[in-house]
Design a protein that fits this description.
With 375 residues, this protein is of the alpha+beta class. It contains 8 helices and 16 strands. It has 2 domains: 99 residues, no CATH class; 245 residues, Beta Barrel (Acetoacetate decarboxylase-like), CATH 2.40.400. Helices cover 29% and strands 34% of the residues. InterPro entries: ADC_dom_sf.
Length: 375
């Protein structure tokens, strides 16, 4: 009986595709190392030329023009500084997740046999008739975050047995590790249009030469469509709390429950920055249960290839965090079946300490790749 499971979600085995993707990655390595800096420079030159055109054709301001060109130059230097490590990471990700057209690129003959399926697709929804493909795209979103250093033991206490057996909290020195609270406004994405609050801890796999990554302890979403694909594809557990709006102001954004009154949860994040990033790989870890469509179970590695504009990071920052109180307002735990995120944040002490850093991205795009087993 033919194996109908998507190839990137099966247990590893060496195939003709593996041989071709090794050849492809070897060729692409040089292209990435040389081509990425050229692409970044060309993009910066194009945007700089547009600034000059606007200055010549629109209201002239030498100060604004110099400031704009200086910003583009700074962004170019920052992106060039990370070009080589980002290229290496992208090459490694290409090995784990071969692009959909790889077999066609090498014209692998399929005469006399069914073509091997490339890519991953789930059918989700109540009737199981809604296609959801990987990688999943984020086309337009805004993201803010704040990060704190907390005791490693407090993070370990948040992990279940399976996660603790595969990962350990990242050691940032002094017995502390990093925890991040993120708020995202998804406007156009394969996951739908909704808001999301994420509590992420920084973990490292218990294996040699492992790189740190984010692990989502809690994810709360304002719409339920992303719950099933998130669980089936990546092993993300999401809770639905529909009353989760975002309010934008010129210098900040507030993600809150209810009407943003006393007793309601609220996360106030500075809205700032003119930086730009291009195809930066973000490593995410998860522990995945087996699905009927595939055979991968246990710890997995996921990559979010992320780009952003209008972004910046700062030390400290005027972040405001107000935890909910179900006796006074709308807390997450007021929804049926939703655990109290505020109690978790309170145990970590995030409401009693200033964040170590925070950041904002005005326009975020990206692709969330299919998971791969560790090792």
């Amino acid at each position: 009986m033919p194996d109908k499971r998507p190839p990137v979600m099966r247990r590893p085995r060496f195939t003709t595709l593996d041989l071709f993707r090794l050849m492809d990655s070897y060729v692409r390595a040089g292209e990435e190392m040389v081509g990425r800096p050229w692409r970044l420079t060309a993009d910066a030159a194009r945007r700089s030329a547009a600034l000059v055109e606007q200055g010549l054709l629109g209201p002239w301001s030498a100060a604004n023009l110099v400031q704009g060109l200086g910003t583009e130059y700074f962004n170019l230097l920052a992106n060039l500084a990370t070009a080589v490590p980002t290229a290496i990471e992208n090459i490694a990700n290409r090995l784990d997740n071969p692009p959909a057209g790889l077999l066609s690129d090498y014209q692998v003959p399929i005469a006399g046999a069914d073509p091997e399926e490339i890519g991953t697709m789930f059918e989700v929804g109540p009737a199981g008739d809604v296609p959801f493909t990987l990688p999943a795209r984020v086309i337009d979103a805004s993201q803010g975050w704040a990060a704190w250093y907390v005791d490693r033991a407090a993070i370990t206490a948040l992990l279940d047995a399976a996660t603790a057996a595969a990962f350990e909290p990242l050691d940032c020195g002094g017995g502390r590790s990093l925890v991040t609270l993120l708020a995202i406004d998804f406007r156009v994405s394969d996951f739908g249009r909704y808001r999301e609050i994420q509590l992420a801890v920084s973990l490292t796999p218990r294996e040699s030469a492992a790189e740190p990554g984010a692990f989502y302890v809690r994810i709360i979403v304002s719409d339920g469509f992303s719950v099933e694909p998130g669980r089936r594809a990546w092993g993300f557990d999401k809770d639905v709390f529909t009353d989760l709006p975002v309010r934008y102001r010129a210098d900040h954004a507030v993600f809150h429950t209810g009407d943003d009154r006393p007793g309601d949860f609220a996360l106030r994040l500075p809205r700032f920055g003119s930086g730009r990033s291009v195809d930066v790989p973000v490593v995410i870890y998860s522990v995945r249960a087996p699905d009927a469509a595939d055979a991968i179970a246990g710890p997995v590695r996921i990559v979010l290839n992320r780009s952003g504009s209008g972004e910046a990071t700062q030390i400290g920052g005027s972040v405001g965090l107000r935890l909910g109180d179900p006796a006074l307002g709308h807390c997450f735990c007021s929804a049926p079946g939703v655990g109290c995120l505020c109690e978790t944040l309170r145990r970590l002490g995030l409401d009693r300490a200033l964040p170590a850093a925070n950041g904002w991205t005005e326009r975020m795009t990206g692709q969330l790749e299919a998971p791969c087993p560790l090792g």
